[in-house]
User: Which sequence fits this backbone?
């Protein structure tokens, strides 16, 4: 089944404790992206990647890191999480053709205390 | 600055009522436009998209949207809503057609359809 998977789905952590949220897609998509969703703010793009070893900042990259060492994986790293990073995170992927319509993962709900 | 504005944050309709959700964007260059939908407890999924050609596009489940370039708008419509259309709807834009690959989403519209 074609899908984007994220792990973990739920995470509660403490301020400053490094964490990684994994994202994997099995559709051979070149483009991958991370978003955070907050009430009243919609989805905001954190980082995106056009292909392996190519990443670019979205609108809200501060406090996050990404890497794209393999085509199928695009992990999101929070080196020192803070409470303002409490949010619902989505990973998405697409082919690099025409419109770049995206396929989304199920989301990861992160709480930083 | 790049932005997407969705005018209605919450909409409540009765079944069979007509729906129109507004979306205006500011991006620069040639754009691709999307409506994504998030049903309760489900992934975000594509409802419809515009990237070229006929500015009136049809999507899944009877939805359609019209791209009006002069108004920078991409409003979503459905002539008769159903209870199962209850969801959150997001308008989005990217500039892939002009070499800009950042995605901008609107803040979303929560639609509740009363049976």
Assistant:
């Amino acid at each position: 089944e074609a899908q984007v998977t994220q792990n973990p789905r739920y995470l509660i952590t403490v301020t400053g404790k490094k964490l990684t949220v994994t994202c994997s897609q099995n559709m051979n998509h070149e483009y991958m992206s991370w978003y955070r969703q907050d009430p009243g703010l919609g989805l905001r793009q954190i980082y995106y990647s056009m292909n392996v070893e190519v990443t670019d900042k979205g609108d809200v990259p501060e406090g996050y890191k990404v890497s794209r060492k393999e085509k199928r994986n695009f992990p999101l790293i929070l080196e020192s999480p803070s409470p303002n990073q409490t949010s619902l995170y989505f990973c998405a992927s697409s082919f690099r053709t025409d419109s770049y319509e995206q396929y989304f993962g199920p989301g990861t709900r992160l709480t930083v205390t | 600055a790049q932005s997407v504005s969705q005018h209605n944050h919450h909409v409540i309709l009765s079944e069979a009522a007509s729906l129109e959700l507004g979306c205006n964007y500011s991006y620069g260059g040639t754009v691709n436009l999307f409506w994504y939908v998030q049903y309760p407890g489900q992934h975000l999924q594509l409802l419809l998209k515009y990237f070229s050609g006929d500015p009136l596009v049809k999507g899944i489940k009877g939805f359609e949207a019209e791209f009006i370039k002069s108004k920078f708008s991409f409003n979503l419509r459905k002539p008769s809503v159903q209870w199962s259309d209850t969801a959150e709807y997001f308008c989005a834009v990217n500039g892939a057609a002009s070499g800009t690959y950042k995605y901008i989403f609107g803040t979303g519209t929560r639609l509740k359809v009363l049976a």
Notes: Chain B touches chain A through 26 residues (CB under 8 Å). The longest strand of chain B covers residues 87-95.
